[in-house]
Amino acid sequence: xxxxxxxxxxxxxxxxxxxxxxxxxxxxxxxxxxxxxxxxxxxxxxxxxxxxxxxxxxxxxxxxxxxxxxxxxxxxxxxxxxxxxxxxxxxxxxxxxxxx
Length: 100
Description:
about 25% strand, YaeB-like fold, single chain, four-stranded mixed sheet
């Protein structure tokens, strides 16, 4: 029996965070770089379905209690996600300096 393919779902906070990151880069005068970086963020997020349990449960207590996983991208951004049956839900993308 074949396994069901894992679908990716981005929650609104994740979509907004990615757009905000892109806008920040574009506002610095690098619109093409912003577009490329946004593409790389989505490419990384979508790749999480290949090995959803590769990254550990988040260390931040509020996220750990919900069994959310944290995947680091480019040393500065963290994808917060969880596999729910055959759906990988990306809840947010945060900059490492905003985590307290």
